[in-house]
Design goal:
This protein is mainly alpha-helical. The chain has eleven helices and no strands. The protein has helices at residues 14-32, 40-70, 73-76, 82-89, 94-109, 111-118, 124-151, 154-160, 162-169, 180-205, 210-218. The relative contact order is 0.06.
């Protein structure tokens, strides 16, 4: 895997620079055609095919945000976060940068959605809703954790914490990432843990002990 700067793109990874140049040259050729559909059916094909390409480019932009955040590349550039770095260099509004960051987080936790996004099967507006929903769920989890920590036995909360650590251990040792299967299993484990916490809190306020609640939740079928 070689690196070069002898192409139109100055991205250091040669394969990526070549791909970017190919996309740029293809767009130049497309504009040179005059963008003139032959009839209404042909216009529909233009619309759908260009929309798919647009979605795939947006997915690449989102993936870049995720990598910048994962590798902490924004720190070396003097930015507080990947969102701030992308907002500054891409000249985005605060809202657009935030939405891109939220979508990147959703793709990290939902690999199947990320795959559909990269294939152009999901629209940008849909991905924004998914990203915003993911942010709301994270906020809900945080609030439930605070409530749970104040009303249940500390040992119960500690028993739920190894879920994330065990997922990290089973990730790819070569690049520190989690495999798709591990990400899915970790997401399911977090959902199950949240379910236990909610039941504990509800039952605690209903007059039951935390230990009885956890025992009843564990006895439920998966």
């Amino acid at each position: 895997m070689g690196y070069t700067t002898n192409m139109g793109s100055i991205v250091l990874l040669a394969e990526a620079a070549e791909a970017i140049d190919t996309i740029g040259n293809g767009l130049d050729a497309l504009f040179a055609t005059g963008m003139s559909p032959a009839d209404d059916r042909d216009a529909i094909q233009w619309i759908t095919e260009l929309e798919t390409l647009s979605r795939r480019v947006a997915a690449a932009q989102t993936g870049l945000v995720a990598v910048i955040d994962r590798d902490n590349l924004h720190a070396a550039d003097g930015h507080a976060s990947a969102k701030v770095m992308v907002r500054h260099h891409a000249k985005l509004s605060e809202g657009d940068a935030k939405a891109r960051t939220q979508v990147a987080a959703a793709c990290r936790d939902l690999p199947d959605v990320a795959e559909a996004w990269q294939a152009g099967q999901v629209g940008a507006s849909q991905m924004r809703v998914i990203g915003y929903g993911g942010m709301l769920m994270e906020s809900f989890v945080a609030m439930m954790a605070l409530v749970a920590a104040s009303v249940i036995d500390p040992g119960v909360m500690r028993s739920l914490s190894p879920v994330r650590e065990s997922a990290k251990v089973s990730g790819d040792p070569h690049n520190g990432e989690l495999s798709r299967g591990t990400k899915r299993n970790a997401a399911m484990a977090r959902t199950a843990a949240l379910s236990v916490v909610i039941r504990v809190v509800v039952n605690q306020y209903s007059g039951y002990s935390a230990s009885k609640s956890v025992a009843s939740a564990a006895a439920l079928p998966p």
